[in-house]
Every structure is written in C-alpha cells, then in structure tokens.
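ARCHIVE RECORD
Type: protein–small molecule complex
Small molecule: glutamic acid
Source of inputs: curated submission
Record status: active
Notes field left blank by submitter.
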Amino acid sequence: MPASRSRPYVGRLAPSPTGLLHLGHARTFALAAARAAGGRLLLRMDDLDGARCRPEFAAAALADLAWLGLAWEEPVIVQSSRLPAYRAALARLHAAGLVYPCDRSRKDLAGALAAPHEAAGDDEPLYPAAWRPPAATPLPPLDPAGLARNWRFRVPEGETVAFTDARLGPRAAVCGRDFGDFLVWRKDGLPSYQLACAVDDAALGITEVVRGEDLVRSTFRQLLLLAALLPPGAPPPGYFHAPLLHDENGTRLAKRHAALALHTLRAQGVEPRTLIA
Ligand code: GLU
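STRUCTURE (tokenized, with ligand):
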C-alpha cells in the first residue's frame, strides 16, 4: 500500500457510465484495487455527461466490477448528486479571480487553431492567450445567468506544473505552452470533468488517483485546481497512470470494442481471475 503512515491510503474507482466496461477498464480498476489493498477504496460514478451517460451502463459497471472481485466502500459517490459542491468550488475560483466567462464556440477555437498554436496530441486545443480578458477585468456574477455560460480557468502563463507519477516518474508541463486556459464550467450548468474530478478528489481525501495514462495532461490541470481549492498546505493526491490496452491493430481499446466488453466475456464464461492475471 504505497502511502505514508501519516496519510492512510484512500483510492477510488471512477467509471463513466457511457458504455460497457472493457478489458482495459478491468486492468486499470484491478490495479487501483491492488494499490488500495489494506487502505480504503471508494467508487465514484462520473455521470455528469447527460447526453452520453445512461443508468443501465452505471448498473452494468457496478455488476462488472463486482464480478471482477473488486470491493469498494458504500455508498457509491454519484457526481450528478453533487452539483452544490461543484457550484461552491466555481464560486471560490470566481472570488479568487481565477476564472473568466468565455463565449467563444468550439468552431471559433477550431478556426483559430488551424494556426501554429496547437499543442501536439492535446485533448483540448490550446486556448489562444489573446482571447483572454485582461486579468483585472471585473467578472460578471455567478447568478443563474452566470451559471449558464462557459467559464475557463486562467492558467498561470509560463509556470511549470510538475508531479512524480508512481509509474511514469517525474512529469512536467508548462502552462500556456503544453495546455492553455481550460473549461471548468459549461453553459449547460454543469462542471467540466476537470473541475468535478478535482473537487471530488479533494473532498473525498483521495491520496492516490489510479487511472489510464490518457489522462496525464488532465492531471496538470487538476493539480492547478487542487492548489486553488485545497486548504493551504494540504497535499494533492499522488498519481499512478496505468498503461492503456490496444487491440491487434494498435487501436486503443474503447467502449466500441464490444467483443472485449466485460459483459460479453462474462457471458462467455470467462473467469475473472484469468482476465486480471
Ligand atoms: N471517469 C473517467 C474516465 O472513465 C476517469 C476519471 C478519473 O479517473 O479521473 O475516463
């Protein structure tokens, strides 16, 4: 159990109920459970994406994880029931002047980025610094109309965010070069994944986040949010980014690989122990 004695291990499984879990999830979640052995393991259902999340996928995820032999603490934490916590976090970022409203569309951004800005392999295009309001611009309030806008986090331009991943070793990224101002709130009235995840990891006292290595770049963003939201001196979680599984063509396993869905493997009588091995 890789945690200091002063900080008992608290880990979490965080499935998104947007499809059936597959072999890649099984490996990541089994790793998360193994690293939490002797400590606590929570389960958080990342169900904020209303258009893609479905209750039947949430039920299937719980059944698949139990079938794998993983055990977590009840109750399950459900993000869609935590909106007040996310609004409170946005209000704190707003009070600290760390966010600004952004009415640019995805299309605006795509247009601006045919240009040289794009960070290689990024999951979210680099937001042009020229589009941010000057730092001293007064912010509109977060009244109901304010919550119906997109809000971006203002990254500290040129600063390096660094952490030591328990598997990958030291990682670092430069704000404004490797990633730019990112969405924390969406005009549909919901937090972005980055904000919800940081708020929950802080609120639940997670000591180590185990997740796929496709999320390394999100970790830099979440570390900025955690620095703004955690009490002074409170450490952020540690991170262990797990390797991703690929199919025989080298394509990353995704929810569309139905043949490798845990649900399918279970129906075929595959033993969960052989999967985890
Ligand atoms: N729910 C996210 C996903 O399935 C994982 C979030 C996380 O572990 O931080 O990609």
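CURATOR ANNOTATION: The first strand starts at residue 10 and ends at 13.
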